[in-house]
Amino acid sequence: MQPVERAEYEGVDYAWVMQTTFVVTILVGAPVVALLSTAVTLDSWGARAAFAVRVGAPIWFVTAVAVALYARRTEAGDGGSGESGSSENGSGESGSSENGSGDTDEADAEDAGKSAAEPDEAEKPD
C-alpha cells in the first residue's frame, strides 16, 4: 500500500480550518437555523431556502473566523509537529524508513547499521 503523502508547511493549516468550520457549522448552525425558523412564517420551499441562506451565511462566516483565529493562536491542525519526544521522523510518518518511491532511505540504512555505543564523527571528543 502506498503511504499517504504529507505536506510540510508553516503557519495555519487552512484545510483543517475549512474542515472544522464545516463540521462545527453543521453541528451548531443547523439547530440555530431550525430554532430561529420557528419564529418566522415560511410558506414555500423557496422562502425556507432563502431564510436558511440569510441566517446560515453569517453563522458560517462567524464560525470560519473563530476557527481560523483559534488555529492561528494554538497552532491547531498542524499534525502535532514540533512536540518534543515525538517518535516521528520528520516526514510525518511514524517510524517509516521509506521515501516516496518505496525504496529505503540510504541515510536511515546507514544509521541502522551503526552501534548505539559508537558515536558519530561530530560527537567524538577531541
Q: Which helices and strands, and how do they pair?
A:
Blueprint: H1 14-37, H2 45-74, H3 106-113
Helix pairs in contact: 1-2
Name some characteristics of this structure.
126 residues, 0% strand, single chain, mainly alpha, elongated
Description:
The chain is mainly alpha-helical. It has a domain at 14-74. Helices cover 49% and strands 0% of the residues. The protein is built from three helices and no strands. It has helices at residues 14-37, 45-74, 106-113. The longest helix has 30 residues, at 45-74. The protein is elongated and about 50 Å long.
Summed up, what is this model?
With 126 residues, the protein is mainly α. Helix content is 49%, strand content 0%.
**Share of helical residues:** 40-55%
Strand content: under 5%
The overall strand count is 0
Give the H and E element order. HHH
Give the biggest sheet.
none
Mean pLDDT: 74
